[in-house]
C-alpha cells in the first residue's frame, strides 16, 4: 500500500494553486474538471508525478467559496532543510507564518506553522535529510 495524496476542499482553486506553487514551491502536476458533478481538481507535489512522492489534491466545488474548518483537521507536514529560511521566504512571498520557527515544546526538533489561503495549517519540520532535495523551499 502507498500514501498517494491528501485532499483539501478549497474556496478558490487558482488562489490555492498559486500558494502551493509560488509560496511553498510545489509543482502543479495535473488538473481536471468534472462538469457533470461541477468540481475541479488540482494535484500538486514536490516530485514530477512519480508515485513515490505523496501529493496534495485540491478540490474546488463550483460556487463554493468557503468551508467550516471545524476542530478535527490538524496539519500537513513538509520537511525543509532550514525552517528559519523557509519562513523568511514564505513571508517574503506573502504567506502567513502563524508559529515562528523554533524547537517543538519539550523537544529539540525545529518546527514552524503556516496557513494556506483557506486556513489549513501546514507544518514545516526542519530535517537535515531534506537538504539538497532540489525541490521547493530550500
Ligand atoms: C481523483 C480522486 O483522487 C478523488 O478524490 S475523486 C473522489 C470524489 N471527489 C469528488 O466527488 C469531488 C467533489 C465532491 N463534491 C467533494 O467535495 O468531495 C469523491 O468521492 N469525493 C467524496 C469525498 O468524500 O471525498
Ligand atoms: Ni482523491
From TrEMBL:
Its cofactor is Zn(2+); Ni(2+). Its EC number is 4.4.1.5. Coiled coil: none annotated. Zn(2+) binds at residues 57, 75, 123. CDD domains: GlxI_Ni (cd16358). It catalyses: (R)-S-lactoylglutathione = methylglyoxal + glutathione. Pathway: Secondary metabolite metabolism; methylglyoxal degradation; (R)-lactate from methylglyoxal: step 1/2. GO terms for cellular component: cytoplasm. Residues 2-127 form the VOC domain. Binds 1 zinc ion per subunit. In the homodimer, two zinc ions are bound between subunits. Binds 1 nickel ion per subunit. It comes from the Bacteria. GO terms for biological process: methylglyoxal catabolic process to D-lactate via S-lactoyl-glutathione. Keywords: Lyase, Metal-binding, Nickel, Zinc. One of its GO terms (molecular function) is metal ion binding. The active site is at residue 123. Belongs to the glyoxalase I family. Catalyzes the conversion of hemimercaptal, formed from methylglyoxal and glutathione, to S-lactoylglutathione. This is Lactoylglutathione lyase. The lineage of its organism: Bacteria, Pseudomonadati, Pseudomonadota, Betaproteobacteria, Burkholderiales.
